[in-house]
């Protein structure tokens, strides 16, 4: 996410508002410290974005997932055939 200092934001406010309205949020900082995030009013809040389960039914995790490659790993660490 792009960061603009207060002076830069004041001098380019119109352009930055268009940027945020177009879906590209940005941060305004003072003395290098982020103060506010500017984003479009209709942009979803991070808490509204559901990520859990978004690939449900599209992938399969094998039963032996936690043991996959264990033989090769042991060979690399211990040198056993």
Protein architecture, described:
The protein has 81 residues and is α+β, with helices and mostly antiparallel strands. It has one domain: YefM-like fold, CATH 3.40.1620. It contains three helices and three strands; from the N terminus they run E-H-H-E-E-H. It has a three-stranded mixed sheet with strand order 1-2-3. The radius of gyration is 24 Å and the shape is elongated. The termini are far apart. 1% of the residues are buried.
CATH fold type = YefM-like fold
Overall average pLDDT: 87
Q: Please report which band the strand proportion falls in: under 5%, 5-15%, 15-25%, 25-35%, 35-45% or over 45%.
A: 15-25%
- Spans of at least 5 consecutive residues whose pLDDT stays below 50 are none
What structural class do helix, strand and pairing data support?
alpha+beta
Assembly state: single chain
Shape label: elongated
- Report the count of strand segments: 3
Order of helices and strands: EHHEEH
Rg over CA atoms, rounded to whole Å, is 24 Å
Q: Helix tally?
A: 3
Major beta sheet, specifics? 3 strands, mixed
The CATH architecture classification is 3-Layer(aba) Sandwich
- What number of domains? 1
Helix content: 25-40%
Organism: Gloeobacter morelensis MG652769
Family: Belongs to the phD/YefM antitoxin family.
Pfam family, one: PhdYeFM_antitox
InterPro entries: Antitoxin_Phd/YefM, YefM-like_sf
């Amino acid at each position: 996410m792009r960061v603009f200092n207060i002076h830069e934001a004041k001098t380019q406010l119109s352009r930055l508002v268009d940027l945020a309205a177009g879906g590209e949020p940005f941060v305004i900082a003072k003395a290098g410290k982020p103060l506010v995030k500017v984003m479009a009013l209709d942009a979803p809040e991070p808490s509204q974005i559901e990520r859990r389960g978004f690939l449900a039914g599209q992938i399969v995790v094998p039963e032996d997932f936690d043991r996959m490659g264990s033989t090769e790993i042991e060979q690399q660490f211990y040198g056993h055939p």
